[in-house]
Amino acid sequence: MAASPGYWIFWLSIMMYLTPSGHSEDKTLEMIAAPYETIVLPCKGLIQSVTEDLHVSWMKMRAKTENNLLVYGFEKGKPTNKHQAYQFQNRTEMVFDWSGSWVNLTLKDVTELDSGVYQCQIYNEYGHWTQNITLSIKDKTWNVTAAPHETAHLPCKFPIKFGTDDLHVSWVKMGEKDKNLQVYGFKKQKPANQQQVSQFKDRTESDLDRSGGWVNLTLKDVTEMDSGIYRCQGYNANGSWTQNILLYIEDPKGRSHIFIIASVVVILILVTAFVC
Ligand SMILES: *[C@@H]1O[C@H](CO)[C@@H](O)[C@H](O)[C@H]1NC(C)=O
Ligand SMILES: *[C@@H]1O[C@H](CO)[C@@H](O)[C@H](O)[C@H]1NC(C)=O
Ligand SMILES: *[C@@H]1O[C@H](CO)[C@@H](O)[C@H](O)[C@H]1NC(C)=O
Ligand SMILES: *[C@@H]1O[C@H](CO)[C@@H](O)[C@H](O)[C@H]1NC(C)=O
Ligand SMILES: *[C@@H]1O[C@H](CO)[C@@H](O)[C@H](O)[C@H]1NC(C)=O
Ligand SMILES: *[C@@H]1O[C@H](CO)[C@@H](O)[C@H](O)[C@H]1NC(C)=O
């Protein structure tokens, strides 16, 4: 496969632009996740394939007096995780995405212990890239209770400092085996509901409250089928967040109905017992 001169001119110009001092994103990305979530830490360089000189490392940064922890290492075409910190064993996976030059890291089952600053470093023939990510694991679940046919208000707060430019928000209802149902989507300041499941059709609404930092969801005419765990997730160029909400649908009259029915049944049994 001979590469055309155009190909080399293209790469040389990119290399000249990128190599002098290496690239580091000055912006630290912020991610807020919920416990037990699987998260994807993004990292980008100029990578077209796995080359012999490609070196990627993910570290969890610690105080100056302590060594940083190795989260994931990749060298000479393969993972080098001999010195991977115990805390990250069997929980990491690196995903290459050539189209976008991404080397994202998947971290499964996060817990509060994983909170902290992560640093990704990429080295190859084209240069050196660094990206810092601050990860916080927040175990805050909102509980919402509503009666059947009422309108439920599911709160979701996003960090105002992320800004609202190009904010993507999606509401899902957690299903079994990670099969989540799309409840509501929000993209470029507009609803984006192509993936919405029929159960929620025409029953959802959401407003972006820029000053307060809310993207609450309104769910109309709820039924017991709507009970469950909802997850509000969003991101833009400054970071990402997740918020869990537990929705209970409780019929205040339901319990008294059941109580009356149960009492009648008991009385009938007693009466039958006496008669026979
Ligand atoms: C990334 O984090 C490390 C350790 O906290 C810090 O020394 C470095 O300056 C940060 N880099 C950027 C670009 O923020
Ligand atoms: C890597 O992360 C970026 C930024 O979040 C995302 O756009 C891209 O789709 C991800 N790629 C893979 C393969 O996960
Ligand atoms: C990771 O998986 C290996 C092989 O299944 C196992 O021996 C090891 O104990 C696991 N480590 C942790 C920290 O779970
Ligand atoms: C919400 O309910 C769950 C489960 O009942 C409970 O563990 C949690 O503490 C509650 N959260 C709040 C904020 O009340
Ligand atoms: C969103 O919900 C929260 C919590 O219930 C509430 O304090 C806030 O005012 C709501 N914001 C909007 C814009 O509805
Ligand atoms: C990211 O944050 C900066 C500073 O807070 C803000 O100026 C910028 O508009 C934000 N970016 C997006 C995509 O919202």
Please give the radius of gyration in angstroms. Answer: 26 Å
Kindly report the average pLDDT value. 87
Largest sheet features: 13 strands, mixed
Backbone shape = elongated
The CATH topology annotation of the largest domain reads as Immunoglobulin-like
> CATH homologous superfamily of the largest domain, by name?
Immunoglobulins
GO biological process, one term: T cell receptor signaling pathway
Keywords: Immunoglobulin domain, Membrane, Signal, Transmembrane, Transmembrane helix
Transmembrane segments: 257-275
Signal peptide: 1-24
Summarize the structure.
It comes from Pelobates cultripes. This protein has helices at about 5-20, 250-275; strands at about 25, 30-35, 40, 55-60, 70-75, 80, 90-95, 100-105, 115-125, 125-135, 140-145, 150-155, 170-175, 180-185, 190, 205, 215-220, 230-235, 240-250.
Describe the structure.
Helix content is 14%, strand content 39%. With 276 residues, the chain is mostly beta strands. Strands 1, 2, 4, 5, 6, 9, 10, 11, 13, 14, 15, 18 and 19 form a 13-stranded mixed β-sheet that branches. The radius of gyration is 26 Å and the shape is elongated. The termini are far apart. One 2-acetamido-2-deoxy-beta-D-glucopyranose is lined by residues 141, 143, 246.
